[in-house]
Amino acid sequence: MSNTLFKGIISYPITPFRAEDGGVDLETLGRLIDRLIQDGSHAIAPLGSTGESAYLNDNEWDEVAEASVAQVANRVPVVVGISDLTTMNAVRRAKFAEKAGADAVMVLPISYWKLSEREIFQHYQTICEAISIPVMVYNNPVTSGIDIAPELIVRMVKELDNVTMVKESSGDIQRMHKLYHLSDGEIPFYNGSNPLALEAFAAGATGWCTAAPNLIPEWTLRLYEASVAGDLIQAREVFYKQLPVLQFILKGGLPTTIKAGLQICGFEAGIPRHPLLPLDSAGQNELAEMLKQLNG
Amino acid sequence: MSNTLFKGIISYPITPFRAEDGGVDLETLGRLIDRLIQDGSHAIAPLGSTGESAYLNDNEWDEVAEASVAQVANRVPVVVGISDLTTMNAVRRAKFAEKAGADAVMVLPISYWKLSEREIFQHYQTICEAISIPVMVYNNPVTSGIDIAPELIVRMVKELDNVTMVKESSGDIQRMHKLYHLSDGEIPFYNGSNPLALEAFAAGATGWCTAAPNLIPEWTLRLYEASVAGDLIQAREVFYKQLPVLQFILKGGLPTTIKAGLQICGFEAGIPRHPLLPLDSAGQNELAEMLKQLNG
Amino acid sequence: MSNTLFKGIISYPITPFRAEDGGVDLETLGRLIDRLIQDGSHAIAPLGSTGESAYLNDNEWDEVAEASVAQVANRVPVVVGISDLTTMNAVRRAKFAEKAGADAVMVLPISYWKLSEREIFQHYQTICEAISIPVMVYNNPVTSGIDIAPELIVRMVKELDNVTMVKESSGDIQRMHKLYHLSDGEIPFYNGSNPLALEAFAAGATGWCTAAPNLIPEWTLRLYEASVAGDLIQAREVFYKQLPVLQFILKGGLPTTIKAGLQICGFEAGIPRHPLLPLDSAGQNELAEMLKQLNG
Amino acid sequence: MSNTLFKGIISYPITPFRAEDGGVDLETLGRLIDRLIQDGSHAIAPLGSTGESAYLNDNEWDEVAEASVAQVANRVPVVVGISDLTTMNAVRRAKFAEKAGADAVMVLPISYWKLSEREIFQHYQTICEAISIPVMVYNNPVTSGIDIAPELIVRMVKELDNVTMVKESSGDIQRMHKLYHLSDGEIPFYNGSNPLALEAFAAGATGWCTAAPNLIPEWTLRLYEASVAGDLIQAREVFYKQLPVLQFILKGGLPTTIKAGLQICGFEAGIPRHPLLPLDSAGQNELAEMLKQLNG
Lengths: 296, 296, 296, 296
Known about the structure:
The structure is a homotetramer.
Chain A: E1 8-11, H1 26-38, E2 43-44, H2 58-72, E3 79-82, H3 87-100, E4 104-107, H4 117-130, E5 135-139, H5 141-144, H6 150-159, E6 163-168, H7 173-182, E7 189-191, H8 197-202, E8 207-210, H9 217-228, H10 232-251, H11 254-264, H12 281-295
Parallel strand pairs in A: 1-2, 1-8, 3-4, 4-5, 5-6, 6-7, 7-8
Helix pairs in contact in A: 1-2, 2-3, 3-4, 6-7, 9-10, 10-11, 10-12, 11-12
């Protein structure tokens, strides 16, 4: 069940849109991915929450998936986010990602109508049967409207062959404790809640799924390295330094705040798609001040 | 601000899918709409939550909108549901519905990323500026992930010309009290929470947005008629009789339970789309028993 | 199981404290009780949440219980509130109330440690076995920290002889629906949530447990009378008129707001006990304005 | 503002009751306190949640406070828990504790009626003005019904001289992050949520307020020592070993489970007070099994 392909800092690029027509800007995306890899990311995760995948149409989604995998070019592993309201389209996207060369997919069941455990299980099962690459279960109740219980997650890891990893974004550290216990520490879990990064590593997380490396790559790496080395004092210190940024980017919505932050850093990546609005000027100033303190 | 076009029982048809290929079955939809009108519905609301609009692609959505309006053929007013993650596609659908002849649209902002009040307002504003027919604000925190405060609703009614009605599905009667007070009883509000039907009418709701008429049309009418007549004793009596069905269809998810109920009633309308699963047999038996007691 | 002793407006007097030493002012309490009865209350409920029973020591509690029953002097029925952290002291108080001549007791289990269903049941059972007068189960999760499920309430009504009534203060109308259904409409339930008064009567509540008659007795009576007469239009009208006061007194804490309101009405009843503070002057002005509009 | 008197493992003794008459058993309490100190506790905290202080009358409370301080006899510091519904009695108890020789008091405002920030502040202020020993603010929303915001806590530390420490039992690690940031890491905070022990130390907690040393003293010490040494790998390992016990004792209610556990360990300390019931036999077996695995 162990999976050593993904560990450390798993970086989530935003999806840039062109100023002129609002379309996907693949060239800028490519440069952003290069930057993330050069800055030390251990893996790249396109089309996640940060990547505004929920706001792309199918053609755009396919383009971004293909271009991202090609751009990474096997320098680090790639996990592609799959979150679609219908199982049919989730399957289509998962197959597309596999064919494009993704190393894994991260599957978030989203809901209009709440899904029962039976429905969640079958959603994963149908996707798993359609592809051969590993599947990361992704639990994010706030954005998806579905809360997958640790017991169900562990059952899926046991019963569905390619489910091998879990990303937990509920922000509740007890969920990680539960995953650890239910699997005797065997299931690799990844933290998707930025302000919980220190404690998730303390609790044994294999990696941190985060958009923060778009803005403060060194700080995320330092936290990971101190954690892997078991150096709690250093981990705590570098965590508290970056925590204000981690809280800010989460609270304001990742596409909104990361795009604003990239602009502050001199990397023009456009604004999010409506109904999302760009960060207001008070927020921009606050973020600029935080980034200046951290990045010097 | 008053709007007398919509009142009473506003019925939500499911969207039938063909057994052979899963596609939309417009012929069956047409027959269902006829049945709802013949059974006394005061208005028809295609492409709502019940209509699985969240699970339709754009082509399917357009077909259902067009066919529904045509089928109603002005016998009663039609309000078409608009809930789309991007403002751009919500506008496209609203314009399509208007062109197809809808009398109004019901707009539910849905979220992947939570929307701020500024973002919700602008979403409505953009839609309103693109069409000329009335807009019903729709608040349904559980399915949409967004809770629109009564204060914001009232502000939109005041500042956006074609916002003239509110559908409240939070299930919290205090929200209706608040709408009443903030507008001095002027804004017509509609109840979208089935198990709150009695109390919403008591609190002054203009109508009841419900999928129940697919299964128990007479009972919903009787509740409305007793309420309009101010006959509390009769309203209470007919409400408690139908309440078990109202609770059951909500708890099991409306597309799932209404489609099962239609089959029980001898009207074949298929099953919901994956990841939604058909009602299990225990649920079918429970529902059949309830319907037998009510419909004789 | 039916209980016709208590119905209509069940009024909750505050417990007045002397300005000079903070002690209980029995003389003023007596005048307040007289006023409530003269104003038409159908029953009196001393030592409820409004009566600050939680903030009285045992001697004070006994004095208030005894004096209240004596003052009512059988003009209307009396139900005495019993809420104590230990079962032992709850039993002591229930026996004291019975001996003092109370017609019933209203029992609210309160928690420091959450109670299991087994512990709640045994708490009621022990009290029931110690007295012979009827017991009203009181569910008020917000103040007591315990939420008694409707299923457990109905089980207690069935299994414990003197449990014959339920006061529901959760503010959730669905709880009343559940009580109605689980008992085939047989268990009399009383509403303890002021802003739910209209809907609770619509749903069939036998009475309204309220502190509002300290300030606006006629309005509470009018709502009850319209409801009993089945006149929904009139009930709605008088409800919306008094709703701002009902919301205000609940939101600010009943002892705090009712004592402020009594002073506004010219009835000096002191202030609540620390840590509770008197209503601030902005609140006093707001309340005075509301009362002037209602009481003329 | 720093306070070095309290750190490490702050142990909460239960309050034993005699089997024959239910009265407080001071002799057994004395032996339990000796045991906790011999087992390495860095401080003793009588009359906390674990000590059933909520269920003691004033005389009993005084006896336990006096006997506990005397028994500790300055071997380690003592912090006495003060949680009373009225400010007046909280003051009385705080003064009693100070006179008895306590090194500090831990103050939990509890509510029947919710307290405003103004009321919480004044409650603390009144107590602080009556005594000279340090005050630990105690936030425990689940048992007390009041959630003290980090901003208010920090304000009280700044404005009230003897408020110098904070015990956080909300179980939300973000509260500790907030306290750290709002005070630039200056306010010592203590963790009161057992299943959060690892992460609280990771986040910089000065100590762990816990009843676990009654049952597994060595394990709590090992976690503290590994944390102080900054050894994350060791801290994680010893935490996960003891986590099932930590979860179990919290979930079942500390007085209930700790008393059951003491009996399992051969230390007879009676049962909790009604309405609390003793642990049922299934729970006893589960706990016995866990303790056997840990304590050998």
